[in-house]
């Protein structure tokens, strides 16, 4: 449920800015600035949503180095916070939204309607965001 809410917020906010300013890479630019001059029109409203077939995209437990355990707790198998268990990096270019998933899918959606334009199955996990450069979308698969 939290993944769905996060995706709705992310896509809802991106769809409002997509046509004015692109986000061609994860967190907008190579420096990961995550800043735009665009202004959101409040209140935000859900105009569409996309339901991923694979809800959990990251393990619920990770091994931690002893020096890192202060951040998460005292266990070497500390449970990740709920929000850290999901990952769906999104970029927006023109009137399209692109994302990848751990089940090996690369997907392009229409930013205004949420309709799927295309989907490509790579055959292996994709653990990084797509990137846009020189008129092309670049996707790496494990």
> Shape from CA axes?
globular
Give the total of domains: 1
How many helices does DSSP assign? 2
Q: Which strand order spans the largest sheet, edge to edge or round the barrel?
A: 1-2-3-4
CATH topology: Thrombin, subunit H
The average pLDDT is 70
Low-confidence stretches: 1-19, 56-62, 68-74
How many beta-strand elements? 6
Secondary-structure-based class equals alpha+beta
Question: How much of the residues is beta strand, in percent?
Answer: 15-25%
Element order, helices and strands?
HHEEEEEE
The helical percent reads 10-25%
Q: Quick one: CATH class?
A: Mainly Beta
* Chain oligomer state: single chain
Proper CATH architecture: Beta Barrel
Cα distance spanning the termini: 27 Å
Rg over C-alpha atoms, rounded to the nearest angstrom: 16 Å
Descriptive overview:
This protein is of the alpha+beta class. The chain has one domain (2-55, 87-138): Thrombin, subunit H (Beta Barrel). The chain has 2 helices and 6 strands, in the order H-H-E-E-E-E-E-E. It has helices at 2-17, 69-72, and strands spanning 90-93, 96-100, 105-110, 116-121, 131-133, 136-138. The chain has a 4-stranded antiparallel beta sheet with strand order 1-2-3-4, with helices on one face. A two-stranded antiparallel ribbon has the order 5-6. Mean pLDDT is 70; it is low at 1-19, 56-62 and 68-74. It comes from marine metagenome.
